[in-house]
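QA checklist item 7 of 12: single-chain prediction sanity check.
[x] sequence parsed
[x] length recorded as 482
[x] structure emitted
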Amino acid sequence: MHILFVTSEIYPLIKTGGLADVSGSLPLALRKLGADVRVLIPGYPSVLEKLQHTKVLAEFPSPAGNTAPARLLSAVMPDTALPLLVLDCPVLYNRSGGPYLAPTGRDWPDNAQRFGFLNQIGALLAGSATPLSWRPDVVHCNDWQSALIPALLHYSHAAHARSVVSVHNLAFQGNFDAQWIPRLGLPAASYQMHGVEFYGHFSFLKAGLYYADKITTVSRTYAAEIQTPEFGCGMEGLLQERHADLAGIVNGIDDDWNPARDSHLQKTYDYRTLGNKAANKLALQQELGLEPDADAPLLGLVSRLTHQKGIDLVLDCVHDLLQDGAQLAVLGTGETQFEHSLNQLVRRHPGRVSATIGYDEGLAHRVIAGSDIFLMPSRFEPCGLSQMYAMAYGTPPVVRRTGGLADTVTDCNAAALRDGSATGFVFEQAGATELLGTIRRALSVYRTPETWNALQSSGMQRDFSWQHAAEQYLAAYRSAMA
């Protein structure tokens, strides 16, 4: 099976969130199962800088006036055999800032054009007019940035690949002014409720959800949640209509997240050598300026600092946790108010609270390995990867029962402890009181070493590999082709 995988970010070339991790891992897992996968990605500066031996496959007129033509480059992902198709268009992608945001922190004003062009090239490669000898059977689109492809294919009236759209976070929809519709090659007739129109806007994601042959999202629970008004972000009606074509597939985690061979750690370990984990806790405390106290339960949090992720709930109960003798280590970036509150906490509680504003991949590994308990109190979480990283590293997570958190973490209740299935601590309502109570429940188990070690071992022996997810994606592709 030939698969064109279209994404706006891929680790380790460019990353803002979990989509990059999925894009860097799922295509490799599909290739291991025999699929011929090519990944189409924009040619951001960080992408082009890290690639070697690129080859020009095709040229296209610039979408932005009298500038140099755009080029389609072939390359190979560093350290893997994953084939890449890189859309090199300097006028759209060669700029400072992030893939979606300008240095000011605001969306690039021409994002409709930037990602519209990516979609146009993706649709071209998926159709009979492709300039390549390689033709895909399925084009796999990811989030709004590539969700316009199914609509473009629908209106091409030519032979083309089938399409699958994966929703990694329904809250990000790619909504723009309707003026972009003809500029991106769609007919005026597509701008209607049964098409790309969404409450007076032109929506990339709505286009994908309406025209794709199949829809996937990143957990079974989230697939059900997005069909409700609470989580549907205005698209629940369409998703209800398409429920037969909607599948929830839980993400896997990359092989790099393995404490037995993690080069970022002070000391490697597995579930049979859990005693080595203590060395990583001490090293983390020293690195972050926390009091080197082996008995103080260390709570870790690696996250975007946003309301969605529940960082405000942590801030509301952190003083009680510090009084209980806990320490807190935070790594992340996000809303200014939360960054400011965390920095204030550090000043008020030196040696007890650490906050690293920003993102550091190696430090993320060390925080998860060195912490005793991992906090992930998201209000909604389509899948989430960090809770799986935490379980794999013997750091039981505290999570809210939502989306992928509900599908991957088994609460440490009496029955689950008896049958050995417990892997973490789950609470229901997004409130500081319930979060505090659940963390205190975790601290109670933490102070019972034999039970805690069994809980850690259970999480570490769970299979979070990509193979099972890749098999389900292949089934979705076959269903789309049928």
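[x] summary fact logged: The two ends are 13 Å apart (CA to CA).
[ ] second reviewer sign-off
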